[in-house]
Design goal:
Blueprint (H helix, E strand, L loop, with lengths): L19 H5 E2 L2 E3 L6 H11 L1 H4 L4 E5 L5 H5 L10 E5 L30 E3 L20 E3 L20 E3 L20 E3 L20 E3 L20 E3 L20 E3 L10 H4 L4 E2 L23 E4 L6 E4 L4 E4 L5 E4 L8 E8 L13 E2 L3 E5 L4 E12 L8 E8 L4 E3 L3 E4 L5 E9 L2 E8 L1 E6 L4 E4 L7 E4 L8 E8 L3 H8 L5 E2 L2 E6 L9 E6 L14 E6 L6 E3 L7 E2 L3 E6 L4 E6 L5 H13 E11 L2 E11 L3 H8 L3 E2 L7 E4 L2 E5 L5 E3 L6 E2 L2 E6 L5 E9 L54 E4 L3 E4 H11 L3 H7 L4 H10 L4 H15 L6 H11 L3 H25 L1 H14 L1
Parallel strand pairs: 2-3, 3-4, 4-5, 5-6, 6-7, 7-8, 8-9, 9-10, 10-11, 11-12, 13-15
Antiparallel strand pairs: 1-2, 14-17, 15-16, 16-20, 17-19, 18-25, 19-25, 20-24, 21-22, 21-25, 23-24, 26-29, 27-28, 28-32, 29-31, 30-37, 31-37, 32-36, 33-34, 33-37, 35-36, 38-39, 38-40, 38-41, 39-46, 42-45, 43-46, 44-45, 47-48
Helix pairs in contact: 9-12, 9-14, 10-13, 11-12, 13-14
Protein name: P53-induced death domain-containing protein 1
Keywords: Leucine-rich repeat, Repeat
GO biological process, one term: DNA damage response
Length: 875
């Protein structure tokens, strides 16, 4: 096997010091999915430290890794493996979306892993379930969400120990009858697939407590679902249900029944009166229109109100109105869709790599993606998109811009004001793709035919373009935009009070062919200059390219006619034109600098530390006029330095933030590159990020410049500003004894008993690191009340770590005398869908049992006990 650069065959560096490989191989775990070369490291470790690797019980790999195929060959050799995570989503595409992994199958030998209880294959490219999976005898948790599965194998029911199965976000069209054989299954998630019917055998899942079938194409569900006596939650929203069985009302443990956004016109009374049923978005009480009534009175359209977590809905031929939680509004008229079609939507961060703004464009919204792309509706669908209202709309207009997959184009847009501070952009489309809202220079447009025409600017009617008869053989489209420039701006930017310039004229057309006859253009003379008093030697007509990078003086190349107020000239092809009045000689270079400055925003950077947790830092980039109100709004929760020096930035410009002097960004996030955090400046969107940074004392990291604020040369020449961050009081690391002044003081804990093994305070702290956002669910399953959970959330509402610690240790203090408390903790983790943590607790307990037996054996008590047992038996 080829040797990895920088590592010897033992996985150590040349100096023998511990390397990243040593850190990865901790106890019986290999967490390699956070490293871009995780598969390489697995292969290296397997080659050099095979005896340790084959004992691994927990393994995580990224399936976005190019060496995945070779790494998969190692898996059948890991006979002790209990938990295997092979997930994609660790890389992002050009639209900022998670990329699915390359995994399409598993080696047949994986079916021989008899200890494997937890398997996660989410965010991959599976079209069929690997045949080895139904042969895993101990498998209890299986996740294949976000793949491309169209069916499950007929022998899927052989997974007799399976308690959790998630196949959400696939393309399943039906289920095998054997699914009813999963007698131990408690949690089944088949949401957002293409299921049109369910087998009757679903009613045999007698252990099932949670069943999610939302976002499918179900028109009915079998009566056998009424046999699921253990069922607590049933999610059926966003389907095509026209009826539901009344037997659902008799399920004894049911606490939530979600029937929103279906086609239910009537619901059994016993279901409709349930306090936990959700029916919003159904045409309840409406009757099918009779042929005689058609045309006489329009039936009110179904209205769907989607909650924050929902990301899809279904449109039928009857049409509907849809209002998203973010305020986006859709209107699908009757007949827009001939067949039912599911619409998926998501909001994306704008990325300048594919969101191409024109000069002087201002982005006013995030990117809305609607799928399926390219689907054609029979009638126009209306969209209302809220946007960040710019300070002034004078000489500008708001448009919705759409992306075809190759280029962006502007839609005919109407601006509507819903409230004093809320504006929406309204457009009509026949197909779906990507949409965003921008503010652009006002655009006047006309069609030029052989007869000729006149086009003038609505911003400045003194700017006119005359097309004479015979100017073109084929009709072409012409666009005109004007950028007014004040005398004060020109004087400030050129440092010359006598310098003047006309409005900037931008002309474009949809043809590459020059006009057959000269086109006559009229521009107003610069402010304060008239045809009676001007010095013609100081008057310059400039022509710029489409990017404004070069400005040529064409005064001597055209016949410039002057009147009292205007300058008139003729051209045969279009470009940008600018009239200047100045004594300066190299006017082209000056115009280029002024044009660039007109596109820039004056910007401040701020870095604030949260008062309750100094390691949490808020970084924000703000236009100058927003700094004071933002700081005033945040001063109660944050403290920090004064804003940075003023810098100038373009709309959509990318920049990086980093810390120096022993402070590094400690996180795993896609916008962090080489310890520097990537930002993109948009003047009307929030350029804000909250991060955790690790503070430490010692040598300054080599990758962070020590004097970035003073040395502006070499690799630091692009640094914009440096902001000081105060080093807070050192906080204890996980597993160390927290001091009372840091907010928590825990007495020593020993949960369980010596014979079965203890869970100590250090063990709980280790477990807490993995809980994350599931802490509330885990707390409820541990027996904490809703009131306790709400109080913990409120007391530490700005600190997730403290919420988790408070929940775990509150439970531990209450149950420290209960000999079965460890078993209850394991059960709660399983019920919360956290089999990985349950496995970790069981491993800790098993280690405790082993140590206890060894200690008994060492002191000779085991033999003595055996002798007594033998004597008792002899009596």
């Amino acid at each position: 096997m080829a040797e990895l650069p920088g590592l010897d065959e033992r996985g150590e560096g040349a100096s023998g010091a511990p390397t990243l490989a040593d850190c990865c191989l901790a106890d019986n775990r290999l967490n390699l999915d956070v490293y871009p070369t995780g598969c390489r490291r697995l292969l290296q470790l397997f080659e050099g430290r095979r005896a340790e690797v084959v004992q691994v019980e927990f393994l995580r790999l990224s399936t976005n890794d190019r060496l995945l195929g070779a790494a998969l060959g190692v898996l059948p050799r890991l006979k002790h493996l209990k938990s295997l995570v092979l997930k994609g989503g660790h890389a992002r595409d050009e639209f900022g979306s998670c990329q699915h992994g390359s995994l399409t199958s598993l080696p047949p030998g994986v079916g021989s892993l008899r200890c494997l209880t937890h398997l996660d294959l989410s965010f991959n490219s599976l079209s069929t379930l690997p045949s080895c999976i139904p042969r895993l005898p101990s498998l209890r948790v299986l996740s294949v969400s976000h793949n491309s599965l169209v069916a499950l194998p007929d022998d899927f029911g052989s997974l007799s120990k399976l308690t959790f199965f998630s196949a959400m976000k696939n393309q399943l069209m039906d289920l095998p009858q054997s699914i009813g054989d999963l007698a131990a299954l408690k949690d089944l998630d088949l949401s957002e697939n293409a299921l049109e019917a369910l087998p009757e055998e679903v009613g045999n899942l007698h252990s099932c407590t949670q069943l999610d079938l939302s976002g499918n194409r179900l028109s009915s569900i079998p009566d056998s679902v009424g046999n699921l006596k253990a069922l607590r939650q049933l999610h059926l929203h966003s389907n095509l249900l026209v009826t539901v069985p009344a037997s659902l009302a008799s399920l004894p443990n049911l606490s939530r029944l979600d029937l929103r956004n279906n086609c239910l016109r009537a619901v059994p009374p016993e279901i409709q009166t349930l306090p936990f049923v959700h029916l919003r978005g159904n045409p309840l009480g409406e009757t099918e229109p009779s042929p005689q009534a058609e045309g006489s009175s329009a039936t009110e359209l179904q209205r769907l109100f989607l909650a924050s977590g929902e990301d899809s809905f279904t449109v039928t031929s009857e049409g509907c109105e849809v209002i998203l939680a973010c305020g986006i509004h859709f209107y699908f008229p009757p007949g827009a869709a001939s067949d039912p079609v599911r619409i998926d939507f998501r909001s994306l961060e704008p990325d300048p790599r594919w969101v191409k703004l024109q000069h002087h464009d201002v982005l006013l919204s995030r990117v809305l993606e609607l799928q399926p792309h390219g689907v054609t509706f029979q009638q126009e669908v209306q969209i209302w998109m809220p946007y960040a209202s710019p300070q002034s709309l004078q000489q500008r207009e708001v448009v919705v811009r759409t992306f075809s997959g190759h280029s962006w184009s502007d839609l005919r847009t109407q601006v509507e004001q819903e409230t004093k501070s809320k504006h929406v952009a309204h457009c009509r489309v026949l197909h779906f793709s990507w949409f965003l809202v921008v503010s652009r220079l006002v655009q006047n447009e006309c069609q030029v035919s052989t007869e000729g025409t006149l086009l003038f600017s609505s911003v400045d009617p003194n700017i006119k373009v005359t097309f004479p008869p015979g100017v073109t053989e084929e009709t072409r489209s012409v666009k005109l935009q004007v950028l007014p420039v004040s005398t004060e701006e020109i004087a400030e930017l050129t440092a010359d009070a006598g310098c003047r310039a006309s409005p900037l004229l931008c002309l474009s057309q949809d043809s590459l062919v020059d006009f057959l006859k000269p086109v006559r253009i009229q521009l107003p003379l610069p402010f304060g200059v008239t045809g009676l008093n001007l010095d013609r030697s100081r008057l310059h007509l400039l022509r710029g390219d489409v990017q404004g990078q070069t400005w040529d003086d064409i005064t001597s190349q055209v016949v410039l006619e002057l009147t009292h107020l205007y300058a008139v000239f003729e051209v045969t092809h279009f470009s940008w034109y600018w009239l200047w009045y100045t004594t300066k000689t190299y006017i082209g270079g000056i115009a280029k600098k002024v044009y660039e400055r007109l596109r820039m925003y004056q910007v401040n950077f701020i870095a604030l530390q949260r008062k309750k947790d100094p390691e949490q830092v808020l970084l924000q980039c703000l236009p100058k006029h927003k700094v004071d109100p933002v700081l005033k709004k945040l001063q109660d929760r944050y403290r920090g330095p004064e804003p940075s020096d003023m810098v100038e930035m373009f709309e959509g410009e990318q920049f990086f933030a980093a810390f120096e002097r022993g402070i590094s960004i400690d996180m795993d996030r896609p916008d962090c590159v080489d310890g520097r955090l990537s930002f993109i400046f948009y003047s009307h969107l929030k350029n804000m990020k909250e991060i955790y940074v690790s503070f430490y004392r010692g040598a300054v990291p080599e990758s962070i410049p020590e004097e970035a604020s003073r040395r502006r040369k070499g690799p630091d020449s692009l640094w914009l500003a440096t902001l000081p961050i105060k080093l807070p009081r050192l906080k204890p690391r996980w597993g160390e004894n927290p001091s009372p002044q840091n907010g928590f003081s825990f007495s020593p804990l020993n949960l369980g008993n010596a014979e079965t093994g203890y869970l100590t305070q250090a063990n709980l702290l280790s477990i807490a690191r993995r809980v994350g956002a599931d802490w509330q669910t885990i707390g409820l399953n541990l027996g904490l009340t809703y009131q306790q959970i709400e109080r913990i959330g409120y007391n530490h509402r700005e600190d997730l770590d403290k919420q988790i610690l408070d929940m775990l240790f509150s439970w531990a203090q209450q149950n420290s005398e209960d000999p079965d408390c460890v078993s209850k903790l394991i059960k709660a983790m399983k019920e919360s869908g956290r089999q990985d943590i349950a496995d970790e607790v069981e491993s800790i307990i098993e280690l405790g049992r082993h140590k206890y037996r060894e200690s008994i054996r060492r002191v000779g008590l085991e033999q003595e006990s055996s002798t007594e047992d033998s004597a008792t038996a002899a009596m």
